[in-house]
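Step 1: inspect the first sequence and its tokens.
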Amino acid sequence: MEQRLSHPIETKEVKRKGVDVSYHSSGLVRYKNVSNKSIAAEPLNLVTQHFCFAKYSVPSIDKLDPRPCPPSSADSILPIPDDVEGRITFSFFVSPLNDPKVAWGEVGLNILYADLFSINCVADRLPVPVPVDLTETFVFLSPTKGLRNDPLFSPDQAAIVFHQRLTGSSELIVYPPNIEGVYRIIFSVEMRIAPAVHIEFVDPQYSSEVTRSTKGST
């Protein structure tokens, strides 16, 4: 995969703001606080190939900040051998389920998402194109281009197709309330405009409001 060196993490501005990476269900990968703003990859409901969308290279493990508290049961842990020395690079990629390439690298973390795809992190000591003057610097790397010129779906259509694959339903999808009591409704098709929703309760002590509405969900 052709790659380019983005802003080094050690610069004051980037270190203060951090580097955020988001992979939308449409396949649009966004990068925040680096020069490379976005690329288009495969939609998450149609992942057919192994694709690395970000790398984070550190000069050595001992340069990382120790965790201030013990991990919880909800944390995913990437094991790193104690004897690892020198620069180590963490690669983040999305793959189809059961892709044999997820075993690439020395150690790895594999998170499966339903029956659609997997998110993977691999730590290795393979050489990365770090300039000589940045050998002791934390560096973020990203692809020069994605797998497509533009996303295959609009954001709303991609979200609809993703949830249809996730639930196996092509009808209106209503998710049960979360811990804040918010229901999520996924429409069966993308609307021309975000529709209005009005709900009335028999008991006047209850009320409702739309917290977020798009052409694909509310």
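Step 2: inspect the second sequence and its tokens, then contrast the two.
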Amino acid sequence: MNNNIVTYSDWDTSDWLIFRIKGSSRDGETLHIARRGYPTIELSYWQAINFELGLIVPIQGYEPMTEDSSYLHSIIAEFLSSVDDDYGCINCRSSKLAKVIAPCDECKVIVDGVSYKMVGEESLTMLVPPNLGIGAFDTISFTYCLECGQIQWRFPISDDQFDEAFRVDD
């Protein structure tokens, strides 16, 4: 038996085969998702976070806002949580991580005293900017370390990434 594989579901109990292959770091972690009749998906840890935040949607065969999508999101959340449990904080390695999940109906981003709002089609359906590591759509969601305060996300966010998503709020 391979100790580097964690199984979440199998063909014997459902139409899904979902498993995690452990890596030597967060960057080496992968989630494999197979569903009968659909292509197999392999997501790295960071791609799984992007999927969770709505940045990789839809994946072929997995439409958003359906029961299947809910199941997929719950599996991805379980995967991310288990990876975080294994590796701890990306800054100090502490295992004391807290997850904040809060629905919102308005979200402002203020940088250096300037208020920004999202641009493009996403601004019609997304209230929370997906590329800042604080959630997406209508939910603020992030994990942070209770030891050092580090938000568990890849930083820094480049000026190009920021400019692509936002414009000054008039």
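Step 3: confirm your contrast with the notes below.
The first helix runs from residue 45 to 52. The chain has four helices and ten strands.
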